[in-house]
């Protein structure tokens, strides 16, 4: 597969009245298939930053204290993607007895993915399908066709079950429903946050991975951007683990800019590539 | 602190019609404060067992396939406990800026601990208290006093919010409510499964840990057994991570025996010791 | 339409430790299309009974105080049904502007029928169908095909939204889901409790009515018994209004018998008759 | 008790693109203790209005079709209040066996008042108190003290249980929680919508009634206005029954004015009067 380059920029401006701690998860992850270079995190006015790796997957986080007044946090980097294109007709689902130990927690229900409530729902819809990539692809299609993408229709406490009833949501909800359905069927699935080339309007994005053929394979039930242009920030059980910003106290986000650009325009709009960058 | 010895036995008998995979989490964990010896896991009829370490904390799990008919799984071990008795008047809550990275995920809401819905609830009740061990102890007391311990009153999908309304539950529910309240206050908290000396009737037990003074400190909101007699099996975000048995298919649990005995009777019924065995 | 006769019997035996009030709703309703004769309510040992009409529809209720020990309550009656067979190809849905005032409350969400959460769900599934009897019939079919009838799978607090996720329930749940979907589409719908000929095993039954063509038309999403053999006890917004027995205190139901027999066997098993007995 | 006069005005301006039906419930109710005179409902541009009485309590409603463009609906009336002041130290709770039949439905759970989930919660908090007016007053105080009044913190699907967890809400939520707790204790309770003198900022208001001493007694858990200045529009099981405006389709509320003025300033700010106007 040809190498792809994506230029990343994000800028968050906050205003606070009292010193307020923030945990940012906006820096792209280093993986064997995603190389990050020219990385720059600037905070203006200058503020000490504590760089952390959180969670079992080593998500990168930056912890700092916003001082009273305005603070602008700028992140930029170049991501070189050499994703494994794993599809060889054999992206099978592993039997439970074959799953690696570190994958098992991604079968458990989580805050926003109540898979324990959806066994029959998922089985009725997808139980008789051929197992493997095609089944997860059909789950993704079903979510895409069943939900309306409606900014503002959900909030931070909205869960997959809420969305299965109201049938509207945003990217995180599309991912949560897909993850919950996968887990209910015995397919390990996790949430991925990141940047996405050709996402319109530009924003951070939430997508998901299913464990197929021994790899974590990327899916996007919103079909808003090509998976080959995704740059991962972090992964977790659901959006709770990879919030772009966690604020300990009150702050006002006064502006936000997110960009992910492929300078060589190699990334077209094909929505159905099969990609693994984990 | 004096060393304590606890003899552990558990026996689970299952009956299945077709080959059925089971993941058991009944073996005691090795930690620097909990030594496990004379360990024996027998499966009758003899069955291959796949020993795993699951999750970021290295919970021990045994995966096997129950064959049609009856299977009896017996586990026994001796646990020597040398818990750190950490209380020196200084079991403080760490500020968010000081928390170690690996502890941060235990502030996130999880399937059964919806701390994101309880910020005001927790703050109204416990926000003005002195921070630290005393506050978590008061949370534990409040849970103990507010909930009725009623076997059968909750099920596998019951959450902390459900229990805060219905005000009845079992050990896992007492732990989930305590964890959710801690997290809502900014105190990392996690679920611990294990054996408990002097628990009546004998059973596996669910308790919780709060991160205080840099240690994971044990609490039991049910006050059904002394924390100094707890032997940990595993820990996780909530009960979803440490189910004693996860069945992939249908099985009947035909009998279950659990024992945790201190042969020297060193463990008395003091319910308020301050213990860390993590 | 030919007259039908149904012999009704029910017997409830309770045991209480202290005097306990009970409200029974087991007596068949008098309507212009349902004549009740030979009615007998006996309580053994003999107990004063307070006969009430509850709710705006005049549901009949019997209120009595169970004395310590055992009490047997027997009800029997003969119902002569002369249902209007309203179907003439014109069982239309009325526009909101044409609905009679007393029908409007049956568009409101109720405890077990959260229609306010299901506008998009209902519209996606049924919004483009021809309005009228056929649409409600298709809703009924969808509920029948989507839910498993599983005794014990739900409880007294289970709602339509719960059931739409778990996809199992009993007669009251099938009715609640149907009602919620109808209301979400602007079709007034209400819950009906009653006796049902040829129901196996015999029991009280819950079905529902939709307001079509100016009549309340009977439907049964469980398809467990022919609607032409339904004898109504009462109607309400949902099952909360027509519980067979409401107990103010603790009582043990030691036995229960319910019978609805057509001595002339005029009622066959046709499941799709169009009937109104309101 | 001295007569009180309240001048009522409300004005709602809507804009629609296509003909859109609206049901308004803004006209004050006629009761033996609340006389309505000088009543005027004007719609500009002139539109036919269908006057209805909905529900078992005879709530007054106006149904009309908004034509494309802007419509202004103005209501004004004079309400003369001669409330019964029922408190003579004997506003007792009736035993279930003594409750009138038409009151029983107000013990049932409703969409926004899930009393069936709160038996233990309500009993733990209020079970040992003296029954009667004082107990309901203490429930009202508890709700007032436990919830923050926060405009925008809840939405049209928010229920009493939601609010008991999040501990914020608006007038309808304060009423719903109070109603749910009353019903859980066996006290019939219902929702009342209306106008309120001295409410700041002026708006329609939601309060509740408990059935005590054979009367429906007014309470306001928000304590935002004196109950002696309440003018009832309608009552129902919860807010679902008495929405000020029900729209069948899309409309924009472009402005809204509500006024309730006592020209003689007889109504002071005493918040604890005991009043019945049902």
Automatic annotation (TrEMBL), chains A, B, C, D:
Residues 163-223 form the Transglutaminase-like domain. InterPro entries: Bact_transglu_N_2, Papain-like_cys_pep_sf, Transglutaminase-like. SMART domains: TGc. It holds the Pfam family Bact_transglu_N_2. This is Transglutaminase-like domain-containing protein. It comes from Granulosicoccus antarcticus IMCC3135.
């Amino acid at each position: 597969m040809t190498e792809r380059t994506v230029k990343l920029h994000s800028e968050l401006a906050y205003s606070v009245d009292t010193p307020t701690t923030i945990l940012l998860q906006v820096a792209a992850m280093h993986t064997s298939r995603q190389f990050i270079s020219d990385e720059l995190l600037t905070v203006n006015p200058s503020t000490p930053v504590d760089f952390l790796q959180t969670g079992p997957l080593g998500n990168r986080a930056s912890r700092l204290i916003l001082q009273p007044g305005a603070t602008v946090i700028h992140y930029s980097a170049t991501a070189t993607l050499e994703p494994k294109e794993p599809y060889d007709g054999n992206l099978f689902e592993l039997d439970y007895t074959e799953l690696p130990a570190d994958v098992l927690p991604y079968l458990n229900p989580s805050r926003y993915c109540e898979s324990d409530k959806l066994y029959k729902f998922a089985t009725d819809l997808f139980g008789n399908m051929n197992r493997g990539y095609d089944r997860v692809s059909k789950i993704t299609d079903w979510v895409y066709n069943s939900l309306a993408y409606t900014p503002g229709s959900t909030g931070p406490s909205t869960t997959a079950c809420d969305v299965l009833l109201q049938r509207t949501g945003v990217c995180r909800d599309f991912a949560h429903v897909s993850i919950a359905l996968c887990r209910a069927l015995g397919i390990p699935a996790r949430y991925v946050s990141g940047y996405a080339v050709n996402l319109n309007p530009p924003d951070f994005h939430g997508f998901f991975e299913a464990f197929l053929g021994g790899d974590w394979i990327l899916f996007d039930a919103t079909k808003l951007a090509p998976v080959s242009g995704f740059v991962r920030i972090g992964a977790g059980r659901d959006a709770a683990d990879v919030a772009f910003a966690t604020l300990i106290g009150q702050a006002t986000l006064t502006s936000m800019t997110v960009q992910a650009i492929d300078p060589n325009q190699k990334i077209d709009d094909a929505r159905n590539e099969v990609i693994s960058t984990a």
